[in-house]
């Protein structure tokens, strides 16, 4: 049987291609993305990473061995500390204060994605949680590298591009793929299929998150 990750990527290749070519990422690569759209994205991404960090911490709590506990605990720290530093630079550029950030509600897409990850983290087995967490790592790395390859040197979003196209982030992605593949080894077919469903739903939510940022979507009522 092939590795879980290879199967999951192949099953969701069309969704990844939709993400790669969607207007938000196309305009981000070109450096023409409207600043208000990127502002919406950065605010929501900062909210998202808090929930993502919590889900990673719960993965550490559920991990079957000490090495995986350390891996996911460090990943949770990175989500909160390292990537927040990236957001902090954009927040300063945009004049977004901590108070303004705290007062910004989660968008429908962000709220859905965070709620899905936390519900999975609390209610589902370790293997399914890893299936749900993997797309955020992997898709960001692939999108980052794709954009880096075609972005102009004077792109105003260069800091974002360089972070997700960088070797440090790619190393974290590789480790996450390995952990997920290890978790999938030898599991019952029904559990493996549930892992696939979690991966697919998180991949769909990645698309929804970027689409919502492009539309600067808020709550309609």
Automatic annotation (TrEMBL):
Residues 23-215 form the Thiaminase-2/PQQC domain. Pfam families: TENA_THI-4. Gene3D superfamilies: Heme oxygenase-like (1.20.910.10). CDD domains: TenA_C-like. This is Aminopyrimidine aminohydrolase.
């Amino acid at each position: 049987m092939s590795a879980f990750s290879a199967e999951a990527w192949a099953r969701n290749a069309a969704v990844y291609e939709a993400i790669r070519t969607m207007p938000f990422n196309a305009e981000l690569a070109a450096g023409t993305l409207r600043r208000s759209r990127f502002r919406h994205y950065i605010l929501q991404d900062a909210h998202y990473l808090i929930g993502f960090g919590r889900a990673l911490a719960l993965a550490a709590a559920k991990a079957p061995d000490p090495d995986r506990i350390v891996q996911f605990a460090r990943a949770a720290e990175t989500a909160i500390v390292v990537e927040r530093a990236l957001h902090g630079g954009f927040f300063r550029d945009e004049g977004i204060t901590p108070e303004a950030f705290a007062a910004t509600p989660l968008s429908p897409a962000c709220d859905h994605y965070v709620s899905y990850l936390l519900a999975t983290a609390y209610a589902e087995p370790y293997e399914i949680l890893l299936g749900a967490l993997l797309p955020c790592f992997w898709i960001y790395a692939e999108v980052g590298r794709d954009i880096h390859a075609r972005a102009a040197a004077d792109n105003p979003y260069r800091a974002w591009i360089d972070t997700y196209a960088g070797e440090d982030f790619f190393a974290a992605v590789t480790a996450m793929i390995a952990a997920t593949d290890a978790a999938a080894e030898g599991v019952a077919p029904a559990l493996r299929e549930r892992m696939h469903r979690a991966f697919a739903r998180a991949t769909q939510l990645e698309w929804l998150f970027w689409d919502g940022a492009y539309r600067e979507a808020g709550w309609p009522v």
